[in-house]
Design brief:
- This protein is mostly beta strands.
- Strands 5, 7, 10, 13, 15 and 16 form a six-stranded antiparallel sheet that branches. Strands 6, 8, 9, 11, 12 and 14 form a six-stranded antiparallel sheet that branches.
Length: 172
């Protein structure tokens, strides 16, 4: 434990564990927290199957808990996940567009499931988003998947900076 006029710093085995400033703000350098995005398009996404969204670019991964499109919980707790996927060349003949956060314990699919057949034509771009707080045990995993039914396999998952992304943080 060290203290200066503005920050109390706590150590474990000479490793920074936590800092608390005079206003009570707490920072923990190994708190699970990540944000990732994709660097290239996934073209012509297959129909009638759950397809994993590829996230191959880490914006940050504070505790190194994200790898191979998958977040792995380092500790039991409640995690907040946010995810957004931007699509291009969407087929208006799809009867279902589903975005799912798939965890070891549950699958959270957008509700209502998007029905592009209500559109008057093929949209150039369309986005689906989600956010959910999940109860996870240590070593549970979370990843983002999409599914399309009906129409043709012409829809792409776009790589366009931050519009296709996946993030998460341990809340408590």
């Amino acid at each position: 434990y060290e203290q200066n006029n503005e920050i109390m710093t706590f150590f474990t085995n000479d490793t920074l564990a936590m800092q608390i400033d005079l206003n009570g703000h707490v920072t923990k350098p190994l708190q699970p927290c990540f944000l990732v995005r994709n660097s290239s398009d996934q073209s012509n996404v297959a129909l009638n199957t759950l397809v994993t969204v590829v996230f191959d670019t880490e914006v940050f991964d504070q505790n190194a808990d994200f790898a191979s499109n998958t977040f792995t919980a380092p500790v039991t707790g409640r995690y907040l996940f946010t995810y957004s996927v931007n699509f291009a060349q969407v087929d208006a003949d799809h009867t279902i567009m589903a975005l799912t956060l798939s965890t070891s314990n549950n699958a959270f699919t957008n509700n209502p499931i998007a029905d592009p057949s209500a559109l008057t034509g093929d949209p150039a771009e369309l986005s689906l988003h989600g956010a959910v707080i999940c109860d996870m045990d240590a070593s549970d995993t979370a990843l983002v998947k999409v599914a399309f039914e009906g129409g043709s396999a012409q829809t792409d998952i776009k790589a366009n900076g931050v519009r296709t992304n996946f993030g998460g943080v341990l809340l408590c």
